[in-house]
Specification:
Layout: H1 3-10, E1 15-18, E2 23-26, E3 31-35, E4 41-46, E5 55-56, E6 59-60, H2 66-81, E7 85-87, E8 93-95, E9 100-107, E10 110-118, H3 120-124, H4 126-129
Antiparallel strand pairs: 1-2, 2-3, 3-4, 4-10, 5-6, 7-8, 8-9, 9-10
Length: 149
Amino acid sequence: MSRAEVAHALQEPATPVGGRYAQEDFATAGVSVFHDDAGHLVCIALAAATGPQTTLAGVSLAGRDPEQMEQWLLEDYAAEHGGTVLFTLDGSFALTDLGLLIRTQRIGDTRLTRPLLMTEDWFESTYYRDHLPLERPQPQNEYRRGSGA
């Protein structure tokens, strides 16, 4: 989708964030989008609390406890459907076959899941994958697998 098509679909004008990732935010919709140099949509990030509710196999992906989501992805979804689970350096986790990256977002004193959907090229590139979406800097390793944080 082009930038104009995304704005039309979300019925909201974009707020350009800029930077090397060409991020545009749609605050009312709770969505951030990214386009490549050719103007093609390459990533959609859904806000944990205000983004559209997205499900996988009937399970909500946004606004969940990160540890419960990780457990469900590993023990239920991946075990039943297969696929490769990836853990990134910042403690995010992903189903690489689906281009689904689960990050966390701070909401008050809590961290909740924030799904990102991205193209294979961006997903496989740590240059993009490990730095999206652009938000206030977050301490590294705040949430790590098995940390209980």
